[in-house]
## 1
Amino acid sequence: MRLDKFLCETLGVTRREATILLRRGEVTVDGNTVKVASVKVGEESHVEWQERHLPMPGPRYFMLFKPDGFVCSHEDSNNPTAFTLLDEVNMDKLHFAGRLDVDTTGLVLITDDGQWSHRITSPKHKCEKTYRVWLEDAIGDDYEQQLQDGIQLRNEKGLTLPAKMEVVDFSQNELLLTISEGKYHQVKRMFAALGNKVEQLHRESIGTIVLDESLEPGEYRPLTAEEVASI
Ligand code: URA
């Protein structure tokens, strides 16, 4: 692919603007400043604009360890958005494939591929999400069965779909919960319906994609091809 076409697609600029960036010496290919628009770049090329790596044009997929206090939206008047944790070009094209509440931590997937994120968020696909939950009060003996049978949430018509619960530590009121829907505040509302309260919530996995243990809160990385294909 020609370098000017590559810049148009990754940066969303016009051919003329791409030529100007090149003439100014803002673009390097494999460490060398390139000013010629017709130079060919491919999968193996490392292209940088203003010292920022530009990925090959095409859909983008990332996992982020969302910290407490960040919102999953492009704008918010009260809290910083989780997008501020990403250093990517064309940020306005990216969206969250399923949001977390401002005080929930853990795995969020970010992409510009709407069909892919639809398979995560659409109720039809029943994509499983696993949460680590800390409750205010003791885990009830009947919770596992009730969550399996379905919970009646306030202001919802039917019961929740069967959910799997696994106790991690009774003394800490800590458990893992796997659900296959994503209703508004679903986990908090499920435990509220059981007469308890979620004190802390952390998402560990979406489908078979697990939050990378090497990521610290606020860090992110591209998904591997296998992770993308797993959805
Ligand atoms: N359920 C909740 O209640 N909050 C979240 O952030 C995610 C699931």
Note: Residues 3-11 form the longest helix (9 residues).
## 2
Amino acid sequence: MTQPRGCPDLRGVRICARKGEMLLQPVEIKPNVYWVGGIDWDLRNFHGYLTPRGTTYNAYLIVDEEITLVDTVKHYLADEMLERISMICDPGDIDYLVVNHVEMDHSGSVARVLQKAPEATVVTSSKGKEGLEHHYQTEGWSFEIMGSGGELSIGDRTLTFVQTPMVHWPDSMVTYVPEERLLLPNDAFGQHIAGHERFDDQVGWDLLREEAAKYYANIVLPYGTQVSRALGALGDLPIDMIAPSHGVIWRTYIDDLLQVYAKWANHETEPEALIVYDTMWESTRRLSTALRRGLAAAGVPVRVRSLQTSHISEIMTDVLSSRAILIGTPTLNNGMLPSVGAFLTYLRGLRPQKRLGFAFGSYGWGGQGAQEVAQFMESMGWDMPLDLMNVQFRPENEQLEEAVELGRKLGEQILDSD
Ligand code: FEO
């Protein structure tokens, strides 16, 4: 292997890393490719998405003839990243800084790196350059712009770039290292998990699938078409490691991951139902219970989420897999409850498609709440095989039996659509 400039003694690095567990060690994920990111143990809210497990911002240092850093970390973890880099080489020896995506959780430490390595060239897409110029004082920065298929030789390796617009911003691109069969896809394939584990098999598929689904549902869901296009563009590349910018690195469950991503991108769901509701005086809750009974009687698995106890970002994980979505609200001040309105606003932005919808609720006079929910579902293009159920004041037994029957009918529709 070519001796990398600026890193004359890699054995020293490894000795240094072994010296003490207190050090913020880099992790070698491929020969001379290191994870040097930051762990955000305390993050609990990522622009409205609850992250109870925290997250990581992953940056990768490729030590070749030209030392290349791929992405950085949120600004307050710059020192942690630089400490990790310093255990491998002098940060001032970085030649290239690849910015796959401008969002500040990844570009927030670009300026700090360039302070250390003012001669380094920033490698990004044309929209990436525009985005960086909007966010930072970029005067004096040198750029090299990459389009899809662009290549950058850094010595023994030639990095290849593929544009993946809207996964997650218009500027997004991925970096592929063919010599290592390594994909660095930035936001795609991420999960919000902080931990000492760096690889998928150290965590396990069940938990990772759940966190990858929550991440997809809350961040990537509107961009199914673009994800399918990106998967197509990447489909022929030999890949044995996917190292995203959040969470753990995939090396064992890659096939499982690509399968679920293809499914999610195509808005494919399971023959399951999700009931989301809020209630004022228990009437809407009673209707939700009756609907659940009917769906269960038809043999359909049902999840029930009260907006009083579940956060909208947690409910989105259930939306991702559910074929039918039933949404209930009382009428308050001639409209739906504000909690239901907030959920629908969030849902509208994330644009789940190919769903069956059913609106229900209760009212004293007027009854606009459930009507607004039904209008929302129509505006989303969902199939609505049954009319809404809107009950005045408290549902009588007869109306509850009617709700059970409606649940059963909807259940049959769900199974028929499979
Ligand atoms: Fe992880 Fe779009 O930022």
Note: The pocket of MU-OXO-diiron is lined by residues 101, 103, 105-106, 168-169, 187, 245-246 (CB under 6 Å).
